[in-house]
Amino acid sequence: MEYAIQTKGLTKDYGSFVLENIDLTLPKGTILGLIGENGAGKSTLIKCLLGIIHPTAGTVEIEDTVGYVPDECPFSDVLKVSQVAAFLPGVYPGWDSQLFDSYLQKFDLPVDKKVKELSRGMKMKLTIAAALAHRPRLLVLDEATSGLDPVVRDEILDVFLDFVSDEERAILISSHITSDLEKLCDYVAYLHKGRLTVQGPKDELLAQYGKVSCTRDQLSAIPHDILVGKREGSFGCQALVSDRAVLKRALPDAAVEPATLEDIMIYTTKGER
User: Beta-carbon neighbour count of residue 48 at 10 Å?
Assistant: First the structure.
């Protein structure tokens, strides 16, 4: 299997909300960042991928062994870390107790403490250690780094990079922290109102998109097909474009900056208002 994840026409229709016609691929050895506003359908997509909910239409192909890390620690607050380590071998086929112990040491997790006594960062490290210790081929993370301090996030991001270093494993990570995804991801998919509106190699997207500061007259001269979204104020305008090269030909004197993933999220939404 060339891909860790491959979906075609994936659709989940709730009536009031539709995850619509999702074509998504995640090559092995890479990390895909899934971004989008609250309610965009990220969790619905992840649940379809994991088989937690059944799609209305379309197909899903996914690696057989998956490690899942939700946004909250799934272990009972009354358990000690040592007790978590004792019962997990019966839950996960292929459990590697030595690997789990090595992660506990790497993350400096106190085995004699109860889960409720751990900080959020420690709880997330425990959840990640459990997800990795049965040696999955695919790691799926749903807002797992939200609420963590920058030092803890950086430590965890290094673990993720090491996980895919053999080019046989892959990660799908959903996060609102777009700066983390810019550091970590090879590919980005932006989910907006149930549809994938932007996706592709991260570096190519960031090289192609641009943010421009301009006058209203200049704003009106931007080709409509590259205008993603705009912001108009009393002292000037800003706009996001999907092709910096086309913009420079149309407005050679305009001040153009590289766009960020956060810019793409914000201005795509503004483009519909």
Answer: 23
177-181 contacts, C-beta under 8 A, 24 or more apart: 177/145, 177/146, 177/153, 178/35, 178/260, 178/261, 178/262, 178/265, 179/260, 179/262, 180/145, 180/153, 181/33, 181/35, 181/261
Tell me: do 110 and 24 sit in the same domain.
yes
CA–CA separation, 254 and 248 (whole Å): 7
Q: What is the pLDDT of residues 98-109, one digit of tens each?
A: 999 999 999 999
Neighbours of 157 (CB within 10 A): 17
Q: How far apart are CA 205 and CA 134, in angstroms?
A: 34
Distance CA 109, CA 124 (A): 11
Give the global pTM: 0.91
Tokens coding 30: 């890479």
Q: Which residues pair with 26 in a beta bridge?
A: 5
The domain in which residue 16 lies consists of 3-204
Determine the pLDDT at residue 270: 66
Total residues found in the chain within this entry: 273
Instruction: Tell me: do 197 and 82 sit in the same domain.
Output: yes
| Radius of gyration for the chain, computed over Cα atoms and rounded to the nearest angstrom | 21
